[in-house]
């Protein structure tokens, strides 16, 4: 079973619609890990977290967030390369934008890494 087939199976188990074969299937995001349960004998993420939350997440995360995952889980299944994004904090975005502006890099240029000064709710 390929990664895209396994992903489709997980996606269906989560009760979500799933594109037919041949259509792009890029990601599924969930704040709850229950859909990551496995039926092939492997330990699921959920079971690992239940069995040892501090060992899996660390004591600081458990103290701060309790028994709730402090992050968004995204599972990617791509048959072709994907463009992945990482979003900076508001402070990092402002610093990056100002740095690129000082360097004369237009926001529309392909090498620009920060392309906004206020359209994000983080600003």
UniProtKB/TrEMBL annotation:
Keywords: Isomerase
The keyword Isomerase is assigned to this record: yes
Residue ranges of every copy of the Phosphomannose isomerase type I catalytic domain listed in the record: 41-95
InterPro entries xrefs: PMI_typeI_cat, RmlC-like_jellyroll, RmlC_Cupin_sf
SUPFAM superfamilies membership: RmlC-like cupins
Disordered: annotated span: 18-38
Sample GO molecular function, one term: zinc ion binding
Pfam families attached to this UniProt entry: PMI_typeI_cat
Entry annotated with the keyword Flavoprotein: no
Protein name per its UniProtKB record: Phosphomannose isomerase type I family protein
Record organism: Mycobacterium xenopi 4042
């Amino acid at each position: 079973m390929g990664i895209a087939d396994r992903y489709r199976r997980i996606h269906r188990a989560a009760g979500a619609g799933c594109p037919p074969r041949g259509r792009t299937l890029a990601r599924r995001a969930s704040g709850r890990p229950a859909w990551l349960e496995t039926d092939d004998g492997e330990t699921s993420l959920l079971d690992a977290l239940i069995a040892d939350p501090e060992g899996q997440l660390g004591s600081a995360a458990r103290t701060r967030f309790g028994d709730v995952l402090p992050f968004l889980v995204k599972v990617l299944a791509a048959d072709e390369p994907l463009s992945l994004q990482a979003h900076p904090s508001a402070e990092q975005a402002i610093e990056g934008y100002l740095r690129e502006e000082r360097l004369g890099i237009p926001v529309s240029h392909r090498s620009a890494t920060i392309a906004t000064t206020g359209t994000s709710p983080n600003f």
